[in-house]
Amino acid sequence: MFDAASSSDDQAKVVGATNGHEPSSSIELPAKVEPHQARGWRFWAMFISLCITSLLSALDATIVSTVLPSIVADIKSESLYVWALNAFFLSMTTIQPLYGQTANIFGRRWLIIAAIVLFAIGSGICGGANSTAMFIAGRVILGAGGGGINVMIDMVVCDLVPQRERGKYMGLVFAVFSIGTTLGPLLGGVFAQSVSWRWAFYINLPVVAVALPLIIIFLRVNYDRETHILRKLGRIDYVGNFLLTASVISVLIAIISADTVHPWGSWRTIVPIVIGVLGHIAFIIHQGIPKLAPEPTVPLHLFRARSAAAAFGLTFVHGILQYWLVYFIPLYLQSVKRYSPQYAGVAFLPSVLITIPFAIISGGFISAANRYRPPQLVGIGLLVIGFGILTLLDRNSSTGEWVGYQIVSAAGAGLLLTCTLPAIQAPVEEKYVATATGTWGFLRSYGSIWGVSIPSAIFNARVNQMLHIVQDEGIRNTLSNGAAYEHGTAKFINAIENIGIQSSVIEVYTAGLRLVWQVGIGFAGLGLIFALLVQEIPMLQQLETNEFGYEGKKGGGKNDTEKAVAPADLSS
User: Fold this and answer.
1) Residues 7, 107: Cα–Cα separation, whole Å
2) Major facilitator superfamily (MFS) profile domain: which residues (predicted)?
3) Strands (E), 72-153
4) Which of 14, 162, 321, 553 would disulfide-bridge 427, Cβ 3.0–4.6 Å?
């Protein structure tokens, strides 16, 4: 750990290295941008509306995990179910860097409004879908809206709250987000069993009807009103966004379809991966040449500081592991324990009840102690342990075991929710917060897709290896080539009349899940390495700029609605 003096020196060095300026022992702050603000009703009305919006996006990210079998059966999309699952994440991931860049050009308010509108449109299309193509199109639009909601909420909070105070507010945002991601499977099970899977999407519309007016009324923040729209459009990094989007889509199409639509060794899998890797290389080269990208989508200087680069890596791994758990613990509960979708959602509640308070605890600790490394190290350590003990689960595991194992991994995931972004923002100037936050959101979402696709590929491969123990050719054919996940329900397994064959099918699912958890230990170990490389850099106690703060406060003055209650002390 670092003492205050050495940490201050480290901060000066990293800021200098990151932004191309000479290190400085002091930071000159603009006048009238005050620390430790007493938050008034306007701030809290805006903040609550942002939290409601965050809940929407989080619910939609995971609610499909328990309604997917019902969707597949209803709209006859067996061969394309994997796209119904991943279209949301694919769209959400590729759009976030664009939001990060254009937020500095067009401001925060209109982008988050546009994201909410897209989300509502996508929800309506998914709820009314009567074909696979229509459902996937709706999921793509939902992802574009959800990705914007996620990154813009983080950005707005960072615009209005100093670095050191952000932890507690981001803790509340992520707590709400965690409620959504963990309640998603529960609500999905309720809708699938009691009403209709379509309500998993229709439910978003009345919530949007509440959240959108609140955002329009209360989210009044500064942005550039003087520059002509054509000049603003000219600042967008079109080539960079195209290269990044195309390369990400190419790679993800390959890994999503591998072992489900095409074998891993097929040219249809290998060629998109190669194209995607080359596209990533071209994107990096393009972003590093100022003449080609004067305002890059992902400025490479964000990665020059070892600490920030390691924090980005930890963010990516955390995104992988979080969705690894969200999608495969419910599969265990439904396939091995043979719980109904509704009861499986209830059985997943320990993750909700643990993730939320640990996210808040992490954020509060960061604000109080001005340190983000302890929750990082404890959080990733708990995930290593959590994945390790999940390998012990089988059909005979008691309720206490599968609840207790969830608690360990959920505590680790919760701690990490609020402590990666501060480590990324601490070394950079406030003017780079938008692009840094957009990049952070992109990597977190990119990780979430890998967090579904990697364990799915591992699970499917292991199931194919184990199917020989099932003495029924029809069932073997049903579960082979990536179909085991969609059939991992109590309804399917309980319908197998022969007890011996039913037992062997459960054993196949158990073996597939055990390998999934074992590989997860390795990814958690990689996250631990990244966490060890992160440096402790003191966070600023007041904003350096109010460029995107409340309207009427750009230069400070009489119209300020939030009042400072204490002076800053940057030496602490």
Assistant:
1) 33
2) 46-539
3) none
4) 14
Q: Which residues of 432-441 are buried (b: 16+ CB within 10 A; e: fewer)?
A: bbbbbbbbbb
Q: How far apart are CA 429 and CA 572, in angstroms?
A: 19
Give the N- to C-terminal CA distance of the chain in Å, as an integer.
15
Answer left, alpha or beta for residue 370, where phi above 0 means left and psi between -120 and 50 means alpha: left
Given 3.60.21.10, 1.20.1250.20, 3.40.30.10, 3.20.20.300, which CATH number is that of 4-8+41-221+295-549? 1.20.1250.20
Contact 307, 14 (CB under 8 A): yes
- State whether residue 563 is helix, strand or coil: strand
**At CA 140, angle to CA 139 and CA 143, rounded to 5?**
85
Rg (CA), the chain: 24
248, 93 in Cβ contact below 8 A?
Answer: yes
Going through 440-571 in order, the beta strands assigned E by DSSP cover 563-564
What CA–CA distance (Å, rounded) separates 437 from 86?
23
Tokens of 487: 């059939």
CA dist 299 and 293 (Å) reads 9
pLDDT tens over the chain, length 572 residues? 334 333 334 433 344 444 433 333 333 333 344 444 556 777 888 888 888 888 888 888 778 867 877 887 788 766 566 677 678 878 888 888 888 888 878 878 888 999 999 999 999 999 999 888 899 999 999 999 988 988 888 888 877 787 777 777 887 887 788 778 777 877 888 888 888 889 999 989 998 998 899 888 888 766 666 777 888 788 888 999 999 989 988 988 887 777 667 777 788 889 999 999 999 999 999 999 988 988 888 888 888 888 889 999 999 999 999 989 988 998 999 999 999 877 887 888 888 789 888 988 998 898 888 899 999 999 999 999 999 999 999 999 999 999 999 999 999 999 998 899 889 888 877 777 778 888 888 898 889 878 888 898 889 889 988 999 988 888 898 888 778 887 888 889 999 889 999 999 999 999 999 999 999 999 999 999 999 999 998 876 655 555 444 555 544 433 333 333 333 332 33
Domain assignments of the chain as residue spans, ordered by start: 4-8+41-221+295-549, 237-294
**Whole-number Å distance between alpha carbons of 247 and 254:** 11
